[in-house]
Amino acid sequence: MVINPSETAKAESLAARVGETIVIRVTPPNGTTEDRYDLKQQMGEYFQPVGLESLGRLDRAIRALKPGSAVFKYILVDRQTLLSYRGEIKIEIQH
């Protein structure tokens, strides 16, 4: 499953299954390049990071660990201006 945070505002709730790998793709604001940004995340107890070779600089792969209502939080930091953009994605994890 691939999630683009800009599209999550349209969805009432996203769903995943325990053990499923989810790829989060964060796009930089206003068409700026990815090289300008760093992405930091807070996964909490519901996710674990997964290493995938094909990921881009602002992509993160996570695996759902247990059922429940989870929130994946991230911060996109502009290295030139030090402005940051916070976001969160709510995901319902099912068995």
Summarize the structure.
The protein has 95 residues and is mainly β. Helix content is 4%, strand content 51%. The chain has one helix at residues 5-8; strands at residues 2-3, 14-17, 21-25, 37-42, 47-49, 59-64, 68-78, 84-94.
Task: Describe this structure as you would to a colleague.
With 95 residues, the protein is mainly beta. Helices cover 4% and strands 51% of the residues. The chain is built from 1 helix and 8 strands. It has a 4-stranded mixed sheet. The longest helix is centred in the N-terminal third of the chain and has 4 residues, at 5-8. The two termini are 16 Å apart.
- C-alpha Rg, in Å? 13 Å
Helical stretch tally: 1
Largest sheet: 4 strands, mixed
Strand proportion, as a percent range, falls in: over 45%
The overall pLDDT, averaged over residues, is 86
What share of the residues lie within helices? under 10%
Report the order of strands and helices.
Answer: EHEEEEEEE
Q: What is the strand tally?
A: 8
Low-confidence stretches: none
End-to-end distance, in Å? 16 Å
Strand sequence of the main sheet, in spatial order?
A: 1-3-6-5
Molecular shape: elongated
**Category by helix and strand content:** mainly beta
Layout of helices and strands, plus pairs?
Layout: E1 2-3, H1 5-8, E2 14-17, E3 21-25, E4 37-42, E5 47-49, E6 59-64, E7 68-78, E8 84-94
Parallel strand pairs: 1-3, 2-8
Antiparallel strand pairs: 3-6, 4-7, 5-6, 7-8
Keywords:
single chain, four-stranded mixed β-sheet, 95 residues, elongated, mainly beta
